[in-house]
Structure formats: C-alpha cells, structure tokens
Amino acid sequence: MPGLMSCRSEMEAEKPLKGAKITGSLHMTIQTAVLIETLKSLGADIRWCSCNIFSTQDHAAAAIAQSNSASVFAWKAETLEEYWWCVNEALTWYDEAGYPNPNEGPNLIVDDGGDATLLIHEGVEWENNYEVNKKLPNPDDTDNLEMKEVYRVLAKELEKNPKKWQTIANNVYGVSEETTTGVHRLYTMAENNKLLFPALNVNDSVTKSKFDNLYGCKHSLPDGIMRATDVMLAGKEVLVFGYGDVGKGCAFSLKAAGCRVNIAEIDPICALQAAMEGLTVCRKEDVLSTCDIFVTATGNKDIIMVEDMVKMKNNAIVCNIGHFDNEIDIGGLENFPGIIKENIKPQNDRWIFPDGHGVLVLAEGRLVNLGCATGHPSFVMSCSFTNQTVAQVELWKNKNTDKYRNEVYVLPKKLDEKVAHLHLNHLNARLTRLTDEQALYIKVPKDGPFKPNHYRY
C-alpha cells in the first residue's frame, strides 16, 4: 500500500494527528488495519467498528486489538443487534477512571456508508425531543430492522446520559466519508441544514471513485461470486443493475470472463455508454427468466424484489455490490409463504420456493465482495485510504479555523493528483514533464493541478 507508506514516511515525525481521537466505522479488513496503523503512527488515538456485518476479517481485527493500535469492536457475521452495539461502543470514549465520557471523544470520524454519522445525528434529535416530552425511542414504531436496533441503542443511552450525543456532535471537528451512499446522506443533511459538523467527501476524489469503485469492483466482484459458488462464469447470462463506476467495473470483469452481460439503467448517458461498450441495455423484466446471475450496483433500494425472484430460473445467483442491504428484497423472501431457506455454505443461501425452484442469494443481500471474499485488493485500497488519511489530517489541521463549515467538501485537485503520484513508482510508470512553454500554452501550472475541478476523467 504505497500511498499509506508514503504518508507515514512524510508525516510520522511531525505527528499531525496528535491529540485526535478518531472513531472509524469502516470494513475491518487487513487493508483497513494498515489505515488504522497509519493514523496511529501520525499521532491519533482510535476506536473502530466495521460498517457491514459480514465484512470483518477476524484475524485483522484481532491483530489491531492485540497491538493496541486501536480498540476494535468487530467480528464476522454479527447480528444487527451486535452491529449497532459495536457502532455505539466505537463512539463511546472513556475517561482515565474508566467511565464513559463523551467529552473525551471522538473529535474526528472516518465513516463508510454513514452509520456512525447517522447514530450521532439520530441521537441528537432524540435527545432534543427527550428534553421536551421525556419520550424514549420505541423500536415498535418502525418496520426497518436496522432502525429498530438504532432505537434500542438510543433508548439505553438516553437513560444513561441524555446529553451524550449533543456533547459528541459539539466536539467532532469533521467526518471523512468513504462511499457513494454515505455521501448522499451527507448532502441530504446539508441541504436540510441538519448536518452537525463539516464533512469531507472522500468518495468523489478521482483517486477513490475511479479506482476503488471501478477497478476494485472489477477485481472483487467475480472473486466473491466464484468463492461463494465455484460457478464457471464463461457463457453465463448476467444482468448488472446500474452502470456507474461500480457497475462499469462489474460489467467489464464479467464480460472479460466470457459472460453475456446485460445492463439495467435509468440514466440515458450511462445507458448509452453501456451500449457503446457492446453491452445490452434492457429492463429487468426482459431477462428475469433467462439470466443466470443478477448483480445490483445502484445504491438505490427495492431493485430485485421477491416477485422478481419467483420468475427466475432454478439456481439463479442473486448478489449485491451496492453499499446497503436494501437493493435485494430479503424481507420479502423471509416472509414468502411456504419458502424454505437452505444454507449451502456461509453467506450462500438457497431459497426454495413452493414450486421447487430456488435462487442462490449471496451474503444475505449485503456486499458480496466482502461477505463472500476479502474485498478490494491492497493496492487500490491504498488509493482510497491515502485520501482518508489526507482528509483526517486536513480536518484536524483546520480544527480551530473557519475553513470548514457544516457543509460537504471535496479534497482539492492538487491532493488528488498527489495521491495518484504516490502510486506511480509502484507500477513503474514515468510521467512526462511539461516544458514551461507547454504549461503556458494550456494555461496550467507546470506541476499541476492539470485539470479543472469540473473535468470528468
């Protein structure tokens, strides 16, 4: 992970994160362990949880805990109750006497999908309501299984300390957000004037979105499918839902493996891109009965419903590589009359309908690449996590300035280019240098940034 190693060599002596108390909510993998060790080497104290019930690599979590690099609350195959307990514990800091004290931390957040940020914001809202009406959150008031657990956590915490989340929100200098869905959450909160602290949008750094999302998924989607099923991809008909950066990476790898790839899209520009790559653009109802593999990659909800799976061929494979678990209708499967769930192996379940045909659902509709494999490879995660490191340093450096308000920001282009530069030597890539005359001719600094912010790579 050359980017993270360069961050250490450049900044370790300076300790730019000294005094920072970082809570991380991000897949607890080997690659994340290197990120944690990097943040630690730059001076931070850290508490960490995963952002997915299936993505933790237990050996990585154990190694980080054993080395005292961070307090870790994560293990593979958590229940939802355990998951939200872990998020709460990662956000709960203790004083020297061993008592929970929100004044102790956190003061920075590393988030992936926005669950840590969500718990803080939900907590503040419920504390404000509690001051007025003394009403506690009631899990029975929502049908959302995740929010039921959030409400249980908040109800317990309100009774312990009715100012916990307001104290944390006031002490947090900012969050750096890793993924598309979490960024959407942040922009929505900012537009509604509900964002309680500044946010750096790491996802839309080019060296994240065009590398992690595209090249990472290009590698890890087929890895997850094949580890879970041992299926031969060549010759299979596939439908990929969504042709953004994630969908593009998935489609490219499946096509390269010999699959016949269809794309479902709502965006005419993305649909045209898919068609120009020789892919078939269609609606799901056109191919439900013929496709062998279905991959959701939209970041939206209700993409594959139980009514769709009823119409699929026997042993069709259904999986998701969008961030959350609501693209595939797992609840509909669980409540379908007469259905039988047969566990084939961990994170591979065959749901058998009353007519005898079944579908293979991977990772219970959560991220297939992390639930059924080990996620993206280290090199591409080095790009993403170098952005995270730079973002955390940037937020901490400016904690006492007015540079960042309670809005969402992207990292400067110059830093994006630096992240890319740090990885070139590892690939034996040599940059061409502009002459002074050439730089003047195209009106860019000789050492960059080379593209305007609106440039689309």
- Summarize the main sheet: 8 strands, mixed
Please give the share of residues in helix: 40-55%
State the name of the first-level CATH class of the largest domain.
Alpha Beta
Could you tell me the CATH topology label of the largest domain: Rossmann fold
What fraction of residues sit in β-strands? 5-15%
CATH H-level superfamily of the largest domain: Adenosylhomocysteinase-like
| Sheet with the most strands: spatial strand order | 9-8-7-10-11-14-13-12
Based on the coordinates given, report the CATH architecture of the largest domain: 3-Layer(aba) Sandwich
What overall form do the CA principal axes indicate?
globular
Tally of individual domains: 2
Poorly predicted ranges (pLDDT <50, ≥5 residues)?
none
Instruction: Determine the structural class based on helices, strands and strand pairing.
Output: alpha/beta
Total of DSSP H or I helical runs spanning 4+ residues: 18
For the terminal residues, how far apart are their CA atoms? 23 Å
Radius of gyration in whole Å, from Cα?
Answer: 23 Å
Question: What do these coordinates show?
Answer:
With 457 residues, this protein is an alpha/beta fold. It folds into 2 domains: 250 residues, Adenosylhomocysteinase-like (Rossmann fold); 157 residues, Rossmann fold. 44% of the residues lie in helices and 14% in strands. The chain has an 8-stranded mixed β-sheet. The protein has a 7-stranded parallel β-sheet with strand order 3-2-1-4-5-6-15, with helices on both faces. The protein is globular, with a radius of gyration of 23 Å. The mean pLDDT is 96.
